[in-house]
């Protein structure tokens, strides 16, 4: 999944919910369920997600929403092979970007 997020240090839960096209409550739920997500909290107590958290959220989204993993399956997959999963996910993301570019070029022909 390609996200259209500007490069920033921190993202609000609303920005991420919009980018992932999910409810903010799902992001909050994943934050509670997955230890790999560690957002900072501002003075008001709002979660502020770093780019590393966004990568983990992308992996969770990919595993749960796109590949159909259960939450337990996604947790296990992330814990057992986090580095391998991250590498595979980055490759998939790059390939999806290339595919989108090729489709845009095809439309222009």
From TrEMBL:
Residues 10-80 form the HTH merR-type domain. Keywords: DNA-binding. It comes from the Bacteria. The keyword DNA-binding applies. GO terms for molecular function: DNA binding; DNA-binding transcription factor activity. PROSITE patterns: HTH_MERR_2 (PS50937). This is DNA-binding transcriptional regulator, MerR family. The lineage of its organism: Bacteria, Pseudomonadati, Bacteroidota, Flavobacteriia, Flavobacteriales.
């Amino acid at each position: 999944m390609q996200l259209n997020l500007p490069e920033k240090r921190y993202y609000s839960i609303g920005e991420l919910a919009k980018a992932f096209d999910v409810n903010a409550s799902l992001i909050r739920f994943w934050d509670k369920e997955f230890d790999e997500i560690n957002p900072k909290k501002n003075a008001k107590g709002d979660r502020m997600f770093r780019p590393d958290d966004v990568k983990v959220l992308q992996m969770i989204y990919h595993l749960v929403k796109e590949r159909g993993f259960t939450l337990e399956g996604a947790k296990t997959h992330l814990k057992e092979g986090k580095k391998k999963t991250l590498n595979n996910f980055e490759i998939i993301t790059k390939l999806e970007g290339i595919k989108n570019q090729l489709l845009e070029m095809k439309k222009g022909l």
